[in-house]
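quick one, 285 residues, struct below
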Amino acid sequence: MKPAPFQYHAARTIEEAVDLLGRFGDDARPMAGGQSLNPMLNFRVLRPAHVVDISRIERLRAIDATADRLWIGAAVTHARLEDSALPGVAGALIRHAAGGIAYRSVRNRGTIGGSVAHADAAADWPQALCALDAVVHLVSASGRRNVPMRDFVHGVFETALAPGELIEGFEIAALPPDARWGLSKQIFNHGGFAAAIAVCVLTAQRRALWLGVCGTRPMDMSAALSDLPATWSSAARDRVKQAAIAEIERSGEPGSTDRYRRNLHAVNAAQSVEQAIDVERAARS
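---
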C-alpha cells in the first residue's frame, strides 16, 4: 500500500509548525519519526492533505537536565534516550523504558512525543511518565499550556491534544537520590506489543504504581501500595496482587471481568513493586 497524495512541509521552527497545523486544521498531521503515522498513511487509515515534518526543530530535539528537573523534547528518539547519560533515578527509569521498546530499528526513528500523542493502549511511555508525575507541554498558534501526564491520555488513540496543537516536550521533576523504581513488561513475542506493563516509583513522599494495556488509558494502581511493607515477602506479593485485582475490577474497563487478564496484570504489578523494593537492584540500575 502507498499513502494517498499529500503535500509535505518541513518545518524549521515551532512557530512555523503550529502555524501550518493551525492553518490546515484537520487536513494536517505532524510527523517526527513516523513509526506510528507511516503505517496509518500507507494503509490509508489517515488521508491528510498536508504532513508537517517536525523532526528538524531543535527545541523538540532537546534534552535538558538540571538539579531540579529533566526536559525531554517531543522529537527525541527512543534510541537517544536509551543511549543518553540521563542523570538521577528518573534518568535510569527513562533509559530502561526506552531500551525495552520494540527493536533498535524502531527506536532509532520512533520518538517519545509521537508515541504519547498516538496513545496506543500498548505503548510503553504513558505509564512511565505517569509514574514519574511528568507534565506535558503543549503549544499551538494561540499559545502554550501544560497538562499533567495522568490527564493527557483520554482513551485509545484519544488525548488532550486540541486541533492545531503540538506536544513540545515533557517536564519531569528530579526524584530524590533514595527513590526506587521497577518496570515489569510482559510480551509474548520479542519486539512485539506488550500484553501488560507496570511501572512503580517509590519515594518517602509518594508511592506510584501505573499499569498499561489494562484498559483504554493508563490505570493508576497506587492505592494498591497503601499497606506496602518495607521488605518484600510472599505475603506482600499476594497483598499487592489482590489489591491490584480489586482495583482492576472496580475500574470497569474492558477486560476487567476477564480473570486471566486481571491475574496477568496483578502478577506483573507485583513484579514491578518487587523490583522497586529490591534496594540492590535499584543501586545497579
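The chain has ten helices and 14 strands.
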